Every structure is written in structure tokens, then in C-alpha cells.
Amino acid sequence: MHKITSSRRAFLQVALAAPFVMKAGRSLAATPVKFSFSAPFDGSNAMYLMADQMGWYKEAGLECQFDAGGGSGEAATRTGSGVYDGGTVDINNVAEFNSKNPTAEIRAVYMAYFKSPLCVASLAKSGINKPSDLAGKTIGAAAPDGAYRLFSTYAKTTSIDAAAVKWNMVGLQLREAVLAGGSADAILGFDSTMYFGLVKAGIASADIKFMYYADAGLDLYGNAIVLSKKFRTTNPEAAKAFVAVSARAYQASMADPKATIAALKAFQPLINADLEEEKLRWLIKNQFTTPETQKNGLGSVDSARLSKSMEAVAAGFGLPSVPKAEDLFDPSFLPSAELRKLPA
């Protein structure tokens, strides 16, 4: 595997030096960790690849395998099955998965997205300016995606007749193409993923429009590090080490996005580095940096906010009961406040 340049490595090592965990693990055989992203390899998960290339996981006694994914639903299933030790999963998908698979008991252990990026994306020419304009329109969506799974709640909240919407169901990687190509009037998903996918497809940024679920009152958390029951219970020290290294990686990605994307480029040479850096900077601005994280740092959640959001999730997913915050998020795996604070 190619490496980050020495100058970038030196910066990250000096600027983000941190006391480490699992010291005993260094003298033992490395613990294998299989981890699934909810998206293809891109700016949203480049921090993990950077930390791996820097040797941070190895220093903590871990040997990690990172795999691309096709949505939060897929990452939740991979983790819940026990085939994967963890993944990046929208916590709302965690609620649905656990409701349907109560013995799986997957848990979010580190929150990364603090403002829901779920939204409806359209182009200016579609004439979609408010939720009611979706009536009679064709929407492109990926079945495992959280935005699609929660559309019924968004429709109810905004008084949309969901039955009046037509669907073009596609794979996650084809979603932006159906909007750019005219096979859909709108698409559902994360704002940054759709925005950069559309820009990559040649759509001018000024022509891209969003209607956020949050603007309809759905104050939801988003993606988190989620761990399997088996990994948490049979090797909790390794699980804590993984979260601690990943927290350090999030800090590093915020301190130097360019170095982080350089690691992604080394791993996936065909990516557009400029576009992926812009995507990461989008996430830093809109997801990682909020009043909540400025006060409490990344990783933790407000239990009252999470509990309130689950009322909407339960209604949207048709869950038999409202999930409890403690059945979704386990704070015992959170690293120190020093590793979770936003870089200055």
C-alpha cells in the first residue's frame, strides 16, 4: 500500500500526538477487526484509511480490514450478522435493525454526524421548491438508505401524499445518475453524497437544491461507529482501542483534510482528490462542527435528543415501540475527552 508523504506524516504525528490505549496489545498477536463503511471509499471515510496508513491501529494492537458499503442498511446487516465487527451506520438504521433483530444488539459507540444530512435533492429545472411539489413526481432512491426508509415520516410531517409519489429504485451508486440523466425528478439521501455525486456527473452546483428532513422538524442524529455484540462483549479492550484510534483519526481529518484525502488517494488512485477533499470539508463544516460538538466534543450524544428523535423514527419505520436511547448508544466505549474535542 502506498504511504502518506513524509511531511504530512510528520505534521499529523506532532500535531495529534495522544496517549494511547491497549499497551499490552503491542506485544501480542494483533486483533483482527473487520469494519464496513456505509458508502464507497470517499471523503467521508478517508480518516480511517489515513489512520491505518499511519500505523495507528497497529500501534493499538489491531489489524483492520476496511470494506466499502452500499448504504447504512447494508452496514447494519453486516455488523448485526457478526460477519463484521463494526461499521459506519446511521443510528436510525440501528433502531430499525435492532427492532427486527432483537438478539443482535448492535450499538452505536461514537457519534460522528450531529445534524441529519437526510434530504430530498432536486435540480432547478424540476420545479421542486417545497415538499408538496413532490406529488406526482418520480423520486430515485436506494432501498437500504436511511433517507428512503424515513421518507414516510417526512411525508407525514410535511403533509405529502406519499401514494402520489412514483419511485425509481436503484443501487446507491446509480442514484445521482438517474437525477442527472432525467430518469427521476428528485432523489433521497445524504446531502454531501448526493451533491458531490451530481457535481461529478457534470451538474452545476447552482442547479442543485435540497429540502432537509431537519427543516420539517426531524431533529435526527446521523452516522456513528457501530459495533457488533460479539466484538463488544468478547473483546471489549480491542473495541475500545478501535474507537480511540478512530476518534484520533476524526481529529486528524479536521486538522488536515488534505493529508487525509492523500491517504484515500493512495488507497484508491482513481478518486478525484479535489472533489473528495471538498466533501470532507463539507462534513467538517456541517456535521462535525455544531454547537453540540463545540461544547461536548465528537462521539457522545444527548440522550434526551436521541430519545425524542426515536419517536419519529419509530413512526417512520413502523416499529412496534419507541427504541430507548440506552438500547442504541453505549457510552462506555467512548475515549477520553482529549481525543474527542474538536481541534483548535
Contiguous uncertain segments of 5+ residues: 17-27
- Topology order in helix (H) and strand (E) letters: HEHHEHEHEEEHHEHEHEEHHHHHHH
Kindly state the percentage of residues in helix.
40-55%
CATH architecture of the largest domain: 3-Layer(aba) Sandwich
**How many H/I helices?**
16
Model description:
- By secondary structure, the chain is of the alpha/beta class.
- The protein contains 16 helices and ten strands.
- It has two domains: 6-115 and 221-340, D-Maltodextrin-Binding Protein, domain 2 (3-Layer(aba) Sandwich); 118-216, D-Maltodextrin-Binding Protein, domain 2, CATH 3.40.190.10.
Fold topology:
Layout: H1 6-15, E1 31-36, H2 46-53, H3 56-59, E2 62-67, H4 72-80, E3 86-90, H5 91-100, E4 107-111, E5 118-123, E6 138-141, H6 146-149, H7 151-157, E7 166-169, H8 175-180, E8 186-190, H9 191-200, E9 208-212, E10 223-227, H10 229-234, H11 236-255, H12 257-267, H13 273-288, H14 291-296, H15 303-317, H16 337-340
Parallel strand pairs: 1-2, 1-3, 6-7, 6-8
Antiparallel strand pairs: 3-10, 4-10, 5-8, 5-9
Helix pairs in contact: 2-11, 2-12, 4-5, 7-15, 9-13, 11-12, 12-13
Summarize the structure.
This protein has 16 helices and ten strands.
List keywords for this structure.
D-Maltodextrin-Binding Protein, domain 2; alpha/beta; 10 strands; 344 residues; five-stranded mixed beta sheet
